[in-house]
Amino acid sequence: MSTRAGFIALIGEPNAGKSTLLNRMVGAKVSIVTHKVQTTRTRIRGVAMEGDSQLVFVDTPGLFQPRRRLDRAMVAAAWGGAADADVIVLLIEAHRGITEGVERILDGLQEVAKGRPVALAVNKIDKVQSDVLLGLTRELNDRFPFSETYMISAEKGYGVDDLRKWLAGKVPESPWLYPEDQIADLPLRMIAAETTREKLTLRLHQELPYQLTVETEAWEERKDGSAKIDQIIYVIRDGHKGIVLGKKGETIKAVSQAARADLEEFLDRKIHLFLQVKVRPNWLEEKERYSEMGLEFKDGN
Predict the structure, then answer these.
(1) Which class for 225: exposed (0-12), middle (13-18), buried (19 or more C-beta within 10 A)?
(2) Per-residue DSSP letters for 213-229?
(3) Closest CA to 14 of 282, 209, 229, 172
(4) Three-class SS of residue 89?
(5) Which of 10, 52, 118, 261 sits 20 to 30 Å CA-CA off 216?
(6) 3-class SS at 150?
């Protein structure tokens, strides 16, 4: 019996629901999901099985107009993920329609797709009337020759199985690329750092939009089967350190508890998580930080 395997790039604007769709496809939480834009910084691969096909999802950062070095690195990673993929899925929010950002992505797809199958997935379909939905999909298909169009709700799971089945038939014949029971190819150290960053993002809301990053400094396997994880939260100002710590350390304690609970569920083992906050004014300009996030550091501003 022949097997199939291939890479699928999920692209779209920030917050279009790419991480939610990835997690739904894979059936586990491998990409951080928050209501803040541009949460995904690295190309997180989730692995899903559909019949004899192995689907390797590349969850790219949201495509937006870049302004700073970190923005440019994220956008370059997103288009790089699309260019390397066997199949591309463009995710669009039904209620937002064709925004300026979507226009830019459609233009970029003309360059990147080059004969590859591209599916349109219109997400959050419960937020609009059916006639609006039909008009939107017609207009999008007039703009780009999508191979298929799917109406989905990534959050509720509607339409996701049909999309996954279609993808299973589109990836090339190939031996499987990962063990059957593997769901992500990110190093565990990075998954742990992303989990803590998600909890910080949720807890701090608008207070620290970009100016923090989390790195897993040490990972110690213990004889009792548990793991001790030491992480550093880098911020760029002293004032931010106080915000992350919170009054009497309440914020950092809550973040640590929430991250630990998620990691214990994900790894199915006891986790001892220790967080430190350090001020590093120039971390946004440091090459090593970009390497930690799996992004390319480009010279120049």
Answers:
(1) exposed
(2) EEEEEEEEE-TTS-EEE
(3) 209
(4) strand
(5) 10
(6) strand
Here the tokens at position 195 are 């989990």
Contact (Cβ atoms closer than 8 angstroms) between residue 199 and residue 262? yes
DSSP-derived 3-state class of residue 255: helix
Residues of the chain with CATH 3.40.50.300: 4-170
Lookup: tokens for 176: 């499987």
Rg for the chain, CA atoms, rounded: 20
Q: What is the pLDDT of residues 146-202, one digit of tens each?
A: 999 999 999 999 999 999 999 999 999 999 887 776 655 556 777 788 889 888 988
Class of CATH domain 188-292: alpha beta
Q: Is 59 exposed, middle or buried (0-12, 13-18, 19+ CB in 10 A)?
A: buried
Q: CA angle 27-113-117, nearest 5°?
A: 55
CB 285 within 8 A of CB 210: no
Structural contact between residues 60 and 42, judged by C-beta atoms closer than 8 angstroms: no
Q: In a 10 Å sphere around its CB, with 0-12 CB exposed, 13-18 middle and 19+ buried, how is residue 244 labelled?
A: buried
Edge-first strand listing for the sheet containing 148-151 = 44-50, 53-59, 4-12, 87-93, 118-123, 148-151
Q: Where in the chain is the domain with CATH 3.30.300.20?
A: 188-292
User: Are 203 and 251 in contact, with CB atoms under 8 Å apart?
Assistant: yes
Q: Which residue has the higher pLDDT, 59 or 128?
A: 128
Please state which of the four CATH numbers 3.40.50.300, 1.50.10.10, 1.10.1760.20, 3.40.980.20 is assigned to the domain occupying 4-170.
3.40.50.300
